[in-house]
Design a protein that fits this description.
The chain has helices at about 25-35, 85-90, 110-125, 150-155, 175-195, 235-250, 255-275, and strands at about 1-5, 10-15, 45, 50-60, 65, 70-75, 95-105, 135-140, 165. With about 280 residues, the protein is an alpha/beta fold. The protein has 2 domains: about 1-210, P-loop containing nucleotide triphosphate hydrolases (Rossmann fold, 3-Layer(aba) Sandwich), CATH 3.40.50; about 225-275, no CATH class. Strands 1, 2, 3, 4, 5, 6, 7, 8 and 9 form a 9-stranded mixed β-sheet that branches. β5 (about 65) and β6 (about 70-75) form a beta hairpin. The longest helix has 20 residues, at about 175-195. InterPro entries: Gliding_Motility_GTPase, P-loop_NTPase, Small_GTPase_ARF/SAR.
């Protein structure tokens, strides 16, 4: 968590993780669409041909304060495809809480298991303890007639006995319930850390904040990096990716223009390997 003493904000980073096309992007798009425009930042999308990474800031006024600080949520998704694993790890850097979005589509049990395994591996590499970080599971696409049951998904991927929420992100069911639950877990950690009896979360289903024009969040979209990639071959691109990772890791937070460059490089490397 980051403390901004100038704006009196505690910045909490929440990452939505899960297999490709499980509904991570749909979750964030719905939250952004339904949230109060005066308390949300610009929705940033870093797109490749087949995947996207989204993020934006959200300042829910009804989360209350901790020691006089407002709670600002930074919501991120990771790309679902394995070839973007370097990007996944960078998005996870500095994460405070995780929402694992499982795909309830029939036949995708193994994809969910593999994605959970990948999450644990990436957290371990980053020095983050999976067994203690605030996390919940969202079982998305439970509206499908041909679906994996909640009980089966729970038994296969929920070794921590985490809270589980059934959802249908495409129509908004369960999305704000998920955000409310993960926010509660984060507040519990903050309140225990500072031994303060914190406020209860009261996030609404279709609105996460009350109007407060004086606390309008403005976030300008940064232009993509214009650096030209003139390296060829797997080795050259791998070296380029490693240098870029080191550059991003040296920063306190992930710069989305650098992240965009990394995604482009990973796409290029994947294309070269497939040819």
């Amino acid at each position: 968590m980051l403390f901004n003493y100038a704006s009196k904000e505690i910045i909490v980073k929440i990452v939505y993780y899960g297999p490709a096309l499980s509904g991570k992007t749909t979750n964030l798009e719905y939250i952004h669409k339904k949230s109060n425009p005066q308390t949300r930042g610009k929705l940033i999308s870093l797109a490749t041909e087949t995947d996207r990474t989204l993020f934006f800031d959200l300042l829910p006024m009804d989360l209350g304060k901790v020691r006089g600080f407002y709670i600002k949520l930074q919501l991120y998704t990771v790309p679902g495809q394995v070839k973007y694993n370097s990007t996944r790890k960078l998005v996870l850097k500095g994460v405070d809480a995780i929402v694992f979005v499982a795909d309830s589509s029939k036949g995708l049990v193994e994809a969910n298991i593999e994605s959970m395994k990948n999450l644990k591996e990436n957290l371990k590499e980053l020095g983050i303890d999976y067994t203690t970080i605030p996390a919940i599971l969202q079982f998305n696409k439970q509206d499908l007639s041909d679906r994996i049951s909640k009980d089966e998904l729970d038994s296969r991927i929920n070794d921590r006995k985490l809270p589980c929420i059934e959802a249908s992100a495409i129509n908004g069911s369960g999305i704000f319930e998920t955000l409310k639950e993960i926010s509660k877990l984060v507040l519990d950690v903050l309140n225990k850390s500072y031994e303060i009896a914190g406020p209860k979360t009261t996030l609404g289903k279709d609105d996460t904040a009350k109007t407060n024009s004086e606390r309008n969040i403005i976030q300008e979209e940064t232009s993509n990096s214009s650096e030209t990639v003139d390296l060829t071959g797997d080795e050259g691109l791998n070296n380029k990716i490693l240098r870029l990772q080191s550059k991003i890791i040296s920063l306190k937070s992930v710069s989305h223009d650098l992240l965009n460059e990394l995604i482009s490089l990973e796409q290029l490397l994947a294309d070269l390997k497939s040819n």
